[in-house]
Design goal:
With about 350 residues, this protein is an alpha/beta fold. Helix content is about 40%, strand content about 15%. It contains 12 helices and 13 strands. Strands 3-2-1-4-5-6-7 form a 7-stranded parallel β-sheet, with helices on both faces. Helix 1 runs parallel beside helix 2.
């Protein structure tokens, strides 16, 4: 069958790459589109996958978000009519779901955050979720649910191979304590300004601490410009650096001593790699992060005081090998996709 995957956000590129390979190994044809947002296209180009770039990001204004959603659905229409996919798959592409619902193409959405919002017309037909969400309060109308073991980062972390050349590229030394810092997603609907306060306090502590350097990963070019303009002291003597290109996040984490992030995929990537991770996300905490916190794989930082008391500025031992053992998530997800395709094919045959 022909499966259409829409890459809507940066983390979707590494997540879907093993899924694409496994689907193609099983004989399915996969076609790809990508939104020109964040580092989506840059990372997709680095992987060598073929895609069609359609649409862009419209910022944090709620009205423009809705306008952008509608317009991108229109922009995707010619591609969809030309390719005629049997199934649409994404990790949160509301534009794809909206269009396919109108065209009666079955949609599968994989997601790991239960508090995401969307308009009623953009609700997917099927949901594939990590098992941490099995006891969560999900939308009452969603009855076609499938669950996979582990977290979504388990899909691609086993394929990771460390590359130490990143240290030279960034001008870093193994003798330094390196912290990767991911600012909050201040354009997201779930953003809480308290996260920004915690970020500023964290960077103040980093700037006062000898022997530590920060690699700051803005979510957008505009966010990077804002931070440089408003906090120039962070960057004095290269205390803090912003990479000039999109990096392999797993590789950067592997050579970091710990991560402090405003939430999202990078937190869970660090947890999957067993790298110390502190979250300064102050929106609604999802079931996956609550589960990781209970397991001791993620530490939530809730106050300015905890920035100084809970975050440990200590180097870690980096001599161990990466864990490349297969994890259940990838095959669970692809098995679910195939089972859904079979059910949809049977349903269409009865109509």
């Amino acid at each position: 069958m022909k499966i259409w995957i829409d890459l809507d956000n940066t983390p979707h590129v590494p997540f879907f790459l093993p899924i694409i390979q496994e689907l193609e190994r099983r004989g399915h044809r996969v076609i790809l589109t990508a939104r020109d947002a964040f580092q989506v296209c840059e990372l997709a180009d680095e992987t060598g996958i073929e895609y069609i770039k359609i649409g862009r990001h419209y910022g944090k204004n709620p009205i423009m978000k809705i306008v952008g959603l509608m317009w991108r659905s229109v922009q995707l229409l010619p591609f969809c009519m030309r390719q005629r996919p049997d199934l649409a798959l994404s990790h949160g592409s509301r534009a794809q779901v909206l269009l396919c619902n109108m065209l009666r193409i079955p949609t599968i959405l994989t997601t790991d955050y239960e508090y995401g919002r969307t308009i009623p017309m953009a609700r997917p037909k099927w949901l594939i979720l990590p098992d941490a969400l099995s006891n969560s309060q999900l939308p009452p109308r969603m009855k076609r649910l499938r669950f996979y073991r582990g977290i979504k980062e388990d899909v691609y972390v086993p394929k990771f191979k460390p590359d130490p050349s990143i240290l030279g590229e960034l001008g870093l030394s193994r003798e330094e304590t390196i912290v990767t810092v991911r600012p909050p997603a201040n354009e997201a609907h779930y953003h809480n300004p308290e996260s920004d306060i915690l970020l500023v306090e964290l960077m103040s502590r980093i700037c006062q601490t000898p022997g530590i350097r920060a690699v700051l990963l803005p979510r957008t070019h505009q966010q990077g410009q804002f931070l440089r303009a408003n906090y120039p002291h962070w960057f004095v003597c290269s205390k803090t650096i912003i990479p000039t290109r999109a990096l392999n996040g797993l590789n950067l984490l592997w050579f970091s001593d710990f991560l402090v992030s405003g939430g999202g995929t990078m937190n869970r990537e660090a947890a999957a790699l067993e790298i110390p991770v502190y979250s300064i996300f102050r929106g609604k905490i999802g079931a996956v992060d609550r589960s990781l916190e209970r397991e001791g794989r993620l530490i939530l930082v809730r106050t300015v005081e905890e920035v100084w008391t809970r975050i440990k500025f200590t180097p870690r031992k980096k001599a161990r090998q990466a864990d490349n053992n297969p994890r259940a998530a990838l095959l669970d997800i692809v098995d679910h996709i195939e089972d859904i395709m079979q059910k949809e094919n049977l349903q269409s045959g009865r109509q």
